[in-house]
């Protein structure tokens, strides 16, 4: 387990979600623990049901907790995925928006469980490290018109090329 592991709150879908994320990103489901059959405290889930799932994506450990319906995901927290290139971004975009997920503005997607993701290529991220504020502004203006990020179009905007 990592020193800091994000814990994602689910309402009964923790194990399903962990397996889904491991299949999308090539990770692993490492451990599943269960609520005690004779639970000594009030519990949102039945005894014997999945309590906590530990899983790993790209060497980072995560926890998926079946905590009940009182908390849900929102865009205040998202997981940002640095993609090597447009093909990798497209792969994750299609996987996360498929089967009930949805596209959002500026490269954000919400998966079928309601968790928000940001998908961006390393080339785009490198441009944000530039001292050329005008180039960054052009790139961001282009980004504001997109759902799925288009690395080539954002690079062209950064470079000052017009379509």
From TrEMBL:
<dbReference type="InterPro" id="IPR029068">
    <property type="entry name" value="Glyas_Bleomycin-R_OHBP_Dase"/>
</dbReference>
<feature type="domain" description="PhnB-like">
    <location>
        <begin position="3"/>
        <end position="120"/>
    </location>
</feature>
<dbReference type="InterPro" id="IPR028973">
    <property type="entry name" value="PhnB-like"/>
</dbReference>
<protein>
    <submittedName>
        <fullName>VOC family protein</fullName>
    </submittedName>
</protein>
<dbReference type="InterPro" id="IPR009725">
    <property type="entry name" value="3_dmu_93_MTrfase"/>
</dbReference>
<dbReference type="Pfam" id="PF06983">
    <property type="entry name" value="3-dmu-9_3-mt"/>
</dbReference>
């Amino acid at each position: 387990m990592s020193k800091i592991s994000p814990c994602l709150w689910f309402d009964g879908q923790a194990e399903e979600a962990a397996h889904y994320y491991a299949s999308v990103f090539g990770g692993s489901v490492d451990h599943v623990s269960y609520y005690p059959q004779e639970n000594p405290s009030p519990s949102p889930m039945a005894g014997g049901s999945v309590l906590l799932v530990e899983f790993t994506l790209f060497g980072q450990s995560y926890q998926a907790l079946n905590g009940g319906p009182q908390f849900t995901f929102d865009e205040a927290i998202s997981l940002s995925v640095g993609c090597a290139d447009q093909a990798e971004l497209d792969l994750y975009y299609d996987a996360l928006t498929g089967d009930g997920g949805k596209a959002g503005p500026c490269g954000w997607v919400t998966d079928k469980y309601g968790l928000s993701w940001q998908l961006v290529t390393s080339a785009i991220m490198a441009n944000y490290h530039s001292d050329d504020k005008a180039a960054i502004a052009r790139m961001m203006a282009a980004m504001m018109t997109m759902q799925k990020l288009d690395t080539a179009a954002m690079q062209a905007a950064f470079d000052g090329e017009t379509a």
